[in-house]
């Protein structure tokens, strides 16, 4: 009994700004069951009232921003105005991902990244597509296998929850197409973080798509292997990825034998409701081609469950 009371007293106080949105709702659900976290909520009628937010922010350990970009910037500025009473901030929006003073919330990115997140006051949660793309690109650039100026192309498909409440409503009302390629202006909001944390000097071409399934995501990068300086094999690529994620509990490189057993097919939803991400290398050495694929839940490792992973690092839970 005493231990339970103590746990409640010592629970970290967390305010989810935008808790009624797609990302916010899932984070709230994930945190609701925990004794080591106390969710502090705002009066829904005052959820957009800066003064009400500021008062509440002064009394919590962490705020998780699940807001559109402009609102996220406003809330981050509110926190900054609190000085010594400021809580830590974890932003799920795109607003601060390559901003100075913000740690990138991808603990598996590279050696020491998790420590950076632990120590940071401000952490930006990665974008869903960016999580898959960077997971594939960064180790290959670090290993010198993929030159920073290589002309990378990225294709992806997302479940419709990626578009938030508005897109969910369209798909559930059956007013949206079953499948749609989009972002054909080639200005997708994830490109800055993919270029920055992928350590690419040449902007990649990214073609996202959305289809009629709620959650799930595949991010794929095709490579002509003989255009890479070291003319690597698919096995070389798999080895580099495997080394980077050898001790990662949330990122798994699927062995070639298992990939072969999938007979050239891959669905997008098997990691839904998990914080897992799987990386695969599909290679054809006869043609010297490879397609690198990341599978994740856009709301899991692509958003809310990644946010919980970052929260645990930031609060030492
Ligand atoms: N959906 C996804 O797969 C992912 C989304 N993200 C990012 O997370 C953020 C939230 O996305 P998502 O949950 O999908 O969006 P939603 O549109 O589903 O939710 C956004 C929420 O923010 C609320 N809101 C808007 N402005 C304010 C404000 N000024 N103060 C308080 N609340 C506000 C909205 O309330 P109301 O409706 O009343 O205006 C809504 O409840 C976005 O930046 C998105 O880019 C990140 C990763 C994945
Ligand atoms: C299907 C769909 O619309 N997806 C969203 C990505 C949502 C997401 O995860 O991006 P943020 O984390 O940056 O919000 C898009 O392409 O804009």
Quick structural gist:
The protein has 317 residues and is an alpha/beta fold. The protein contains eleven helices and 14 strands.
Mean pLDDT across every amino acid position: 96
CATH level 3 topology of the largest domain: Dihydrodipicolinate Reductase, domain 2
Largest sheet: 8 strands, mixed
Question: Strand tally, please?
Answer: 14
Q: What ligands does this structure carry? A: NADPH dihydro-nicotinamide-adenine-dinucleotide phosphate, N-acetyl-L-glutamyl 5-phosphate
- Model regions low in confidence, pLDDT < 50 over at least 5 residues: none
Strand content: 15-25%
The fourth-level CATH homologous superfamily of the largest domain is: Dihydrodipicolinate Reductase, domain 2
CATH class of the largest domain, anyone?
Answer: Alpha Beta
State the share of residues found in helices, binned by percent. Answer: 25-40%
The CATH architecture of the largest domain can be given as 2-Layer Sandwich
Shape: globular
- List the helices and strands in order: HEHEHEHEEHEHEHEHEEEHEHEEH
Q: Oligomeric form of this entry?
A: single chain
| N- and C-termini, Cα separation | 21 Å
């Amino acid at each position: 009994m005493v231990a339970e009371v103590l746990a409640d007293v010592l629970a970290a106080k967390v305010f989810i700004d935008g808790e009624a949105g797609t990302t916010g709702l899932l984070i709230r659900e994930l945190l609701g069951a925990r004794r080591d976290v106390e969710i502090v909520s705002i009066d829904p009628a005052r959820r957009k009232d800066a003064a009400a937010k500021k008062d509440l922010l002064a009394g919590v350990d962490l705020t998780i921003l699940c807001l559109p970009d402009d609102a996220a910037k406003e809330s981050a500025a509110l926190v900054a105005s609190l000085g010594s009473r400021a809580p830590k901030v974890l932003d799920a929006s795109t607003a601060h991902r390559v901003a100075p003073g913000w740690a990138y919330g991808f603990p598996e990115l590279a050696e020491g990244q998790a420590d950076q997140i632990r120590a940071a006051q401000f952490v930006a949660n990665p974008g869903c597509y960016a999580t898959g793309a960077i997971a594939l690109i960064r180790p290959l650039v670090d290993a010198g296998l993929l030159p920073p100026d290589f002309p990378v192309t990225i294709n992806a498909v997302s479940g419709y929850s990626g578009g938030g409440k508005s897109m969910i409503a369209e798909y559930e009302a059956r007013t949206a197409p079953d499948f749609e390629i989009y972002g054909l202006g080639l200005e997708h909001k994830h490109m800055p973080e993919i270029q920055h944390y992928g350590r690419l000097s040449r902007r990649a071409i990214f073609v996202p798509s959305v289809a009629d399934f709620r959650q799930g995501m595949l991010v794929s990068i095709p490579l002509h292997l003989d255009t890479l300086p070291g003319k690597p094999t698919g096995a070389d690529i798999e080895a580099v990825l495997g080394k980077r994620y050898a001790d990662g509990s949330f990122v798994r490189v699927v062995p070639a034998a298992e990939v072969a057993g999938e007979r050239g097919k891959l669905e997008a939803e098997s990691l839904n409701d998990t914080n897992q991400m799987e990386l695969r290398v599909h290679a054809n050495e006869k043609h010297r081609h490879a397609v690198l694929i990341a599978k994740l839940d856009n709301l899991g490792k692509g958003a809310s469950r990644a946010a919980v992973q970052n929260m645990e690092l930031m609060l030492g839970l």
